[in-house]
Amino acid sequence: MTDGSNLEAINILVAGKNQSNVELAKAAYAGIGYQVIPAPGTSLALFLAQKNYPDLIISDGILTDGDGIAFLTELKNDPELSEIPFIFLIDKNTSQIDEDSAITAGAVSVFYHPIEAGWLKECTVPIITKHAATKEIRPEQTPE
Q: What domains appear along the chain, each with residue ranges and CATH number?
């Protein structure tokens, strides 16, 4: 048995090439114990989602080996990962993703730059808390 430490860890996966999203998430969740896990590419993001079963995924529209909609579609096609809340954090002027297609694909919301860390925290903590309260505890996964 374990001592119970880290069983309630909250993980936030931040996918995409935009490093400012990672920095924004770190600033938003600093001091409340949430772990921010960066993943610039789709393959790594999928692997880390399967390994860590995050409580929220924040994605840019562009990943090093794909786009955000394709990444979201991959997640939604996996029964174990499909319930993880997914949010796009994109630049409205340069992103090729529109809000309607993002929501249709399964995103909870679309946020546009510029936003402040406090606002991101305020908008996402209720989503994270709800997911964390309802997710099942999974056995630890190891790569084969």
A: 11-134 (3.40.50.2300)
